[in-house]
Amino acid sequence: MLNRYPIWKYLIVLLVLAVGFIYALPNLYPEDPAIQISGERGVKAISQQNISQATSALEQAGIDVKATEINQGSALIRLEHANQQLSARSVVTDALGEGYVVALNLADSTPDWLRAIGAKPMKLGLDLRGGVHFLLEVDMDAAVTQRMNVDASAMRETLRDERIRYRDNSVRDRAITFSFLNEGELEKAEGELRSQYNQFEFTTRQQGREHQLVMTLTDKAVTDIQDYAVKQNLTTIRNRVNELGVSEPLVQRQGPSRIVVELPGVQDTAAAKRVVGATANLEFRLEAPADAQASEVETFGFRNDPSRKANLSNDVIITGDSVSSASQGFDQNGQPQVNINLDGPGGSKMNRATRSNIGKNMAVLYIEHKSRTRTVMENGKQVEKRTPYTEKGIISLATIQSALGNRFRITGLDSPTEASELSLLLRSGSLAAPIYFAQERTIGPSLGQENINRGVLSVEVGLVLVVLFMLLRYKAFGLIANTSLAINLSLLIAAMSLLGATLTLPGIAGIVLTLGMAVDANVLIYERIREELRNGMSPQQAIHAGYERAFTSILDANITTLLVALILFSIGTGPVKGFAVTLSLGILTSMFTGIMVSRAITNLTIGGKSLKKLWI
Amino acid sequence: MTSFDFMGKRVAAFVVSILLTLVAIGTLAVQHLNLGLDFTGGTLVEVSYDKAPELDVVRQSLSTAGYQDFSVQTFGEANDILVRLQQKYDQSVGDSVTSALNNADNPVSLVRAEFVGAQVGDQLRDQSGLGMLVALGVVALYVAFRFQYKFALGALLSLGHDVIILLGVFSLFKIEFDLTVLAAVLAVIGYSLNDTIIVYDRIRENIRKSQTSDMPRIFNNAINQTLARTLSTSGTTLLVLLALYFLGGDMIHNFSLALIIGVVLGTFSSVYVASALLLVFKLQREDLIPAKKEAVDDELP
Questions:
Q1: What's the CATH number where A514 sits?
Q2: Beta strand A435-443 pairing with A407-410
Q3: Per the database record, which ranges form the SecDF P1 head subdomain domain (chain A) (predicted)?
Q4: Chain-chain contact of B228 with A530 (C-beta, under 8 angstroms)
Q5: CB contact B90 to A (< 8 Å)
Q6: Per residue in A86-117, pLDDT tens?
Q7: What pLDDT, on a 0 to 100 scale, did the predictor assign at position B164?
Q8: Does domain B42-116 have CATH number 3.30.70.3400?
Q9: From edge to edge, which strands make up the β-sheet containing A407-410?
Q10: Same domain? A61 vs A204
Q11: Is residue A441 one of the residues assigned to a domain?
Q12: A129 burial class (0-12, 13-18, 19+ CB within 10 angstroms)?
């Protein structure tokens, strides 16, 4: 019989609808202001004891706690009032002491049964709801020092290659100094280095019996290095934020040496803070031979056993900067590891260094720039004092069995979390200079309430207009189209919530626009039905032919648009990506509702009945 | 069903299209786009009030002082306010904002004033450009595969026509081009492509069904048959957009404007660029229906 669906098709439609409604549901529950606590490096788990410590401190400070919970090693303390969030954070930071990351958060209040099946609400964007604001300070002095150390290491290599013997080498302030035993060696060295390093000013002097070559960075070179450092860090942090999967973030430079990161209501702000602010890097060095000069050796402890120490050469083979891709995995013993691919120059450096040192030991150093922050009272005001320090520890020391290429793996990490974070950091590029959190705040929405209200009103009016238009033009079938439109909207919301998309005002306008365009499928079908009726088909045949013949048009048109959206998604970043997600989801749900759902409704209501006339 | 002679007026339409495209390229070359805060960066001013102020009052005083294109938001506590301005940073901007906001019963002090960089990095700009090109290439391939290469060429040129003229309008009238407008341009590409394919689909169907080789007549029929659908769909879309444009406020004003222009252009170009170009490319029945003669040839020894 024409226009009848087999029962299983109705069931599929019903199932999709039910799932859609359930996953769209969390959007009806509001969010709570909260603070989130997690251990540094993702290692230390938060215990019930930590929480009671924190809550009693909060109680003393007169801050009302709504609820607490522990989830996968991190704790969430929900607060009654949004304006107590900031003071709550400093109270808890002081109460717990070092080793914990305390971050501001907006926690959703989805009921447990919904959360158990992975349902969560869509986040509202920075323009509608605000979010967290991190201000990061780039350490400009360290940028210069870091760069000079790299230069000095390269200079030493040049001198060794040219067989020019130097006695001593030091990097201090903005100068690199080499000492030579006689003037001839100095002149040869100067001739060799001057052409390669024109960002330095060269001077010579005699000190005792030593002839010294002093290379000082010019002021312009210093500004260039610092400017480059901020730009490079900006790119790296953008990459990291994108890797975190936060949609619609804001990352921009502020002033000469600072970077702003704003994230809309991130679920795990503590993790975001750890990843955004992380300064972890790797260095690969050879173990120093027993007879090496003291000036060419540095001693480091092992990271998981500080009492064990090893002497490493001054020279860095490569750093994490040479890593082109990295992923987390497990070795055969189930220990976490990071698989690394080096870029071309890094790979050949590594190959050269290991080829000539088979049988010796090579160490992987894990480097982290950190800072201790203490709140002190100064002139009656609370001031945050920061002291930066660097932690370097060996994570592995292994014998070189054969020459290494550009693919290998690193073991000796504490936990899978650490391995995955390290690989994320190596992937998104390195920081040209250490960064510190200078400020953390929650920020209000960037749009005024009036603006938001107007936006929402216009969206509602637009939607009502479409519904009225369809009713007037297609009468009974307009009703079917509108029903499938409503279903389309809730499916779209469900899909966006599941993917963790962020809703901004232009995003909402985009959704409504997809709805405006989504009626296209129904319009195509209904116009075709009308046409077939005019050509003299019976109502049931016309319905059948209308759906059948409009189908190729709908498919072709939607597949081409979907192709555009998918490519924009895979290549674009940030806002372009967010838009591509909305567009592709919109196409998929509107194809489903426009073809399957509206057909199911039609078949269920009038399919197979003998009709004299269609009310279309 | 209507029976307008669309193809009969194609020469006039070509003249209009070419003129508009030239004007658009000209204005884009001469005065570029008026890029917004997202692309250029601007100035950020943080001020601290004694008591928490009403944000609307803050916005009001900034407007009165002659500032345009700014955003005002609370920063941590309710009495700390963050103001972002479109203009370039200079030394005096912090003080002038502070004095514009200052009033006797709720004194304001300046915390900091700094420049902020673009929200969109060079990386995004390059990647979006590349993404657009790849997307167009893949779409052309798909259309060539499903239809024929002449259709692919027509669809591409019609997309280029829409995007260039749309950008040209924004450049000519110096309307601010920000990230929301970029999103709108992407949506226009989707919409225009959709429209073009619907018309192409009907042209293909009619060529296969009909016996004549009178292409302009087949085209006219196809366009007239899809006209009701085209008007309904662009009608509903325009209804939404007009509501957004007139009621939606500043934030989505330019976004909806770009889309309104884009929808009109897309509807026009699917008929007069995408379809009419097929006549210029001398589309034949044989392009869609493989000639039978060749099959016979193959069987010859």
A1: 1.20.1640.10
A2: unpaired
A3: 305-433
A4: yes
A5: no
A6: 778 778 888 887 778 787 777 777 888 888 88
A7: 93
A8: yes
A9: A323-330, A336-342, A407-410
A10: no
A11: no
A12: buried
Nearest chain B CA: its distance from A286 CA (Å): 36
User: How many whole angstroms separate alpha carbon A242 and alpha carbon A616?
Assistant: 49
Q: Which residues of A touch B116 (CB under 8 A)?
A: 252-255, 260
Q: What is the pTM of this model?
A: 0.76
Are A317 and A388 within one domain?
yes
pLDDT tens by residue, B47-91:
888 887 888 888 888 888 888 778 888 887 677 888 888 877 788
CB contacts < 8 A, A to B, total: 241
Q: Do B243 and A465 touch (CB under 8 A)?
A: yes
For residues A286 and A370, membership in a common domain is answered with yes
B200/A284 Cα distance (integer angstroms)? 60
Domain carrying residue A493? 7-26+448-606
* Region A17-30 average pLDDT: 87
Task: Please state, rounded to an integer, the average pLDDT across all residues of chain A.
Answer: 82
Fold of B7-34+120-288: Multidrug efflux transporter AcrB transmembrane fold (1.20.1640)
A130-140 pLDDT, tens digit per residue, is 778 888 888 88
How many separate domains does chain A show?
Answer: 4
A472 and A506 fall within a common domain: yes
Q: Which helix (H) or strand (E) holds B279?
A: helix B276-280
Per-residue pLDDT of A119-132, as tens digits, reads 888 878 888 877 78
Q: In terms of domains, do A370 and A494 share one?
A: no
Percent pLDDT > 90 in chain B is 20
Same domain, A576 and A466: yes
Show Cβ contacts of residue B269 under 8 Å, excluding neighbours closer than 6 positions. B17, B158, B161, B162, B192, B196
As to burial, measured by CB atoms within 10 angstroms (0-12 exposed, 13-18 middle, 19+ buried), residue A276 is buried
CATH of residue A309's domain is 3.30.1360.200
Specify the higher pLDDT residue, A436 or B294.
A436
Q: What is the pLDDT of residue A267?
A: 54
Name the 3-class secondary structure at B142.
helix
Distance CA B60, CA B11 (A): 53
Interface contact flag, B71 A447, Cβ < 8 Å: yes
Q: Pairing between strand A281-287 and A361-378? A: antiparallel
Domain with CATH 3.30.70.3400 in chain B: 42-116
